Amino acid sequence: MELIDLTLIWIGIIGLGVFMYVLMDGFDLGVGILFPFAPDDRSRDAMMNSVAPVWDGNETWLILGGAGLLAAFPLVYAVFLPALYLGVFLLLAGLIFRGIAFEFRFKAPAGSRHWWDRSFNIGSTVAAFAQGAVVGAYIQGFETEGFVYVGGALDWLTPFTVMTGLGVVAGYALLGVTWTILKTEGTTRDWAYRLAPWLLAAVMGFFVIVSLWTPMASEHVRGRWFDNITALWIFPVLTVITAAAVWRWLRRRVDALPFVGSMALFALFYMGLLISMWPYAVPPDHTFWDAASDPGSQLFLLLGVLFLIPIILGYTAWTYWVFRGKVQADVGYH
Length: 334
What we know:
It is a single chain. This protein is 77% helix and 3% strand. It contains 15 helices and four strands. It has helices at 6-34, 41-51, 55-58, 60-72, 74-83, 85-105, 113-140, 159-183, 186-217, 219-227, 229-232, 234-252, 257-277, 288-291, 295-322, and strands at residues 144-145, 148-149, 280-282, 286-287. It has a two-stranded antiparallel ribbon with strand order 1-2.
């Protein structure tokens, strides 16, 4: 019998990577989603300058989570790739378009900059929607025989996954607008303060709809929640309390706290998802332990990952420290 459950350690590492990606890349995707609605080009310049120094480092967490999943749970890929091929393609295409826009918008002539604004917006929106749709597909489950996917190429696209996709778009927009409040001033910040309560209301609306719809989309979630309703009620209650706190901070115009509160909302959503789906890696039949690689492989790769995580945390913290404070439209790291 193993003294240490390596599979459980890898679940924690991959869970951390995904959570950090959602929080850190979520707000800069949100900035892109909001880009067309900014008051003017000067505001758009300030918004892009606020995320330009950190956006590529934020995506390190996506690489960590994806590579860790392949290394520790290779059989998950045997199902996810054929089942979610189009959704993952949309995600990667959106990230590519957004990344190109970051680099070229700063160098483009004023007359053609609008093309890169559109690339930034469309890429961010498509990537956010695809992430939410993939989460919805995971909740629904996959049609498998063993670890072979036997469903169709578009089985992931259903009314439920469209709803979860739109919910993530709204959630990232909330992160983006509260980040804008934190990092900008003047006209841009005032615009963000006006928009933020509407986005908070939209996010809570999606929260209610998806929470009511999820038990109907997944028999496992229905059993998990209604069999443990006395213990799990705390999560929706904490979500409502946190949303009320964010609303109050927005009304009081406290620049930093709405962003912190928005991140706390995502943390609660994430914990609710994990508790609802545990312990399934490929629902509704296969657990993480079913999909795990050989313990020797897990241990070998774990040594490298445990070395990398402090480095990633260190340079991430350093980057945010160096580029702390408010940004200006005409001052960027480019």
